[in-house]
């Protein structure tokens, strides 16, 4: 019998990719999102049991990020509900370089259930599906002045490993630190997108405090600006400036590089700048 999987964060960047892979091979899946029935909401733990009942394994993507102070209590409570309902396996998406995420990892590792930890770098797709897309299209790109480079990782590679972790025993009780094959600074990453798309994408760096203040003036919620400030001030302090081969070893192939991602993504037209009115 194929395992019955709950995808928490099924509408997110990782969740929908894993969901697609499971559906293609007819694995039974339950959606874990606020729009699903029954719905899953991180802020309504009283409803979790109705979502978890009957599933044998759970993919966990915590929103907005394991770095937020509430994550540890939420992950502990989720693990308790999973154990009560005889879930067999947990696959946790974690963040590289985040002390709070490591505490959540330990909860999963000490749960007594089978587990896989996917401790990931920043995603390629933040440039095409996430926080940077609107700035690329609207320009100029305003960015905090950071010196650290990041080994961006491809979400499709990550989803391949998450899928394997759910349907096979190959990655049982394993922690993987997931990076792409090379380090990139953010300015060069944006410039590469500009070059491949044959467009000008203005790039302006600000001191981090000024950048956060600008986000507040744009009307971003305080919890969002707090998280962005945390990520740039803490995670991008140089601690993640290294490439790890866990992904290559786990998948048995080279992970996608950033230039290949940019070329493939450019062909979709997602970065085509709107025509300026005459």
Automatic annotation (TrEMBL):
Q: Which residue intervals define the domain NAD(P)-binding in the entry?
A: 9-125
Name of this chain's protein: NADH(P)-binding protein, PF13460 family
Show the taxonomic lineage. Answer: Bacteria, Pseudomonadati, Spirochaetota, Spirochaetia, Leptospirales
């Amino acid at each position: 019998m194929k395992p019955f999987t709950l995808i928490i964060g099924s509408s997110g960047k990782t969740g929908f990719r894993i969901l697609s892979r499971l559906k293609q091979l007819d694995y039974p899946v339950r959606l874990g999102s606020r729009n699903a029935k029954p719905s899953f909401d991180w802020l309504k733990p009283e409803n979790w049991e109705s979502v978890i009942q009957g599933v044998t394994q759970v993919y966990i993507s915590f929103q907005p990020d394991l770095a937020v102070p509430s994550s540890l209590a939420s992950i502990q409570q989720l693990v308790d509900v999973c154990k009560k309902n005889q879930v067999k396996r947990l696959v946790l998406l974690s963040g590289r370089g985040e002390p709070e995420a490591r505490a959540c990892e330990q909860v999963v590792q000490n749960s007594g259930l089978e587990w896989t930890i996917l401790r990931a770098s920043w995603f390629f797709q933040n440039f095409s599906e996430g926080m940077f897309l609107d700035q690329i299209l609207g320009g100029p790109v305003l960015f905090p002045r950071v010196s650290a480079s990041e080994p961006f990782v491809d979400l499709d590679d990550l989803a391949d490993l998450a899928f394997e972790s759910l349907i096979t025993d190959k990655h049982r009780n394993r922690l993987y630190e997931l990076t792409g094959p090379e380090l990139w600074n953010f300015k060069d990453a944006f410039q590469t997108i500009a070059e491949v798309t044959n467009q000008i994408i203005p790039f302006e760096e600000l001191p981090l405090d000024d950048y956060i203040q600008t986000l507040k003036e744009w009307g971003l919620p305080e919890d969002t600006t707090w998280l962005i400030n945390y990520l740039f001030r803490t995670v991008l302090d140089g601690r993640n400036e290294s490439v790890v081969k866990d992904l290559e070893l786990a998948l048995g192939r080279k992970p996608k590089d950033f230039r290949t991602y940019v070329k493939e993504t450019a062909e979709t037209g997602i970065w085509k700048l709107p025509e300026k009115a005459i």
